[in-house]
Write a structure and sequence with these properties.
By secondary structure, the chain is of the alpha/beta class. It is built from 18 helices and seven strands. The protein is globular and about 75 Å long. The two termini are 55 Å apart.
Amino acid sequence: MSSSTAWKHPGVSRAVAATALAALLVLFYCLSLWFGPAGCSQQQSDILLARTDADVRSSANTAGLFAELGRCEAQLTRLLGAAKARAEHAEGEAGGRAGGEAESAEGGNPFDGVSAAMVEKELLELRREVARLQAEKLHLESQLHEQEAVGDDTVSREALLAAKQALAQYNPPAAAAATAAATGPHAYRCEATAADMRRYFNFTLRGPCPDDWLLVQHLVFDKGCHALPRRRCIAATAEEPREPMPVPDALFSQKALLDSNVRWQQHRCHSFRCLNQLTASDCRNCFNMTHESRRWRRAYKGSIAMADVIAMKPKSLRLGLDIGGGSGTFAAHMAQYGVTIMTTGLNREAAAAAAAAAGATAAFKGKPEAAPGLPYMETIAARGLIPLHLPHQARFPFFDGTLDIIHSINSIKYMPPLEFEEMLFEWDRVLRPGGLLWFEMFYAPKDEMGIYVWVLQVLGYEKRFWSLMPKTDRTERKGPHVYLNCVLEKPARGSQGMDVVSLGVSKLR
């Protein structure tokens, strides 16, 4: 067939035209990037073409899931209405038949002649059906979340399925789970670290306590020995402490950070001036109050501003927790909105401790407890805020459902999915219904983010804000990474709540 004949054939001409149009779109996209921040590589062109077909499939799947979810919610609403009517009838039976006789005279009572036992049986069956539909709704919502993750080119379905199956292996029977909790790697008993505990208890009764807070952090963070047993010894203080600055002046004043109020012996620096000159640190500029006062004023790319989160619950955010909050700056900014935030953390520089544990730092002889620390706890207290010397895996000293907001920024990374799930369930325990869970800059390898997204949605939180984006600010050792920024609202579960969640989890797996 000649070229002129090929162009006259309608099917061929349409195919050629479509191909030409696609090529022009790619060329236009490349030129826009070329004259923008960076040029268009062949890899970017391939991704663009591949995403076109993927987006079509993703849109179709998402539309189908939304239709299924709508059907499920409609059926759930109808059954809840029927259950409410039957419950009201049961109450009427207990209070007398006067109301029932009036309804019968007017037009007939649909429940006339039905015994209370039959009504209770119908109510039980309705509750079971409601629980089944709620679990189905949770399952459909999880599929939508997964569809968003896959549709956003975040994780492949194969990787997500493999991660789910791996996490499901950590679901032993109750007896095995109890044994694992007592002796396993996620909740060590203090007795399992005999040598370190002998060092911890090497003190003179009613004498001065040893200067061993680095050992204490090693026991708490590395060995999971928390809460540590109390000791009858006299704790040391700074030699010449001065009175702290009052609040609110202390929140963002450099003068509030007094060198004389810190015991510097086992810290990396011996003054706040030294800390502000560090160029390589877990929390660069954390002790520079001018820098810290500018944070959270506006949203950065892919995030949400603090004022917008406050606007979600303008009158009911009162008490919260910041996980691994460095020098307490998030709590300081929230205090200006009238919200009391407690900040968890350790006086540890994670990078130095990790290097010591790996033997990369000869001076510490492969001992993470020997790595110097940073005075996070002292700084939080100096600003008139509340420091909680706790690791991520601790059970929090709060009663169930008592906090309004839990926040974490860039402090949870490279955590195994099981530990992440255990941590998340503890956060859920202390967060009240309607409370907010706010993740900022949580990142993971691109091929692993799907499992963390799945774990997050298991508890059925409502997404108030959700953003997944590539992490481009630093090259990571495990390949491409993805940032997750989100604000989730805890639902009210009621007496059937945990059964619904359990059904949802079993169905998701």
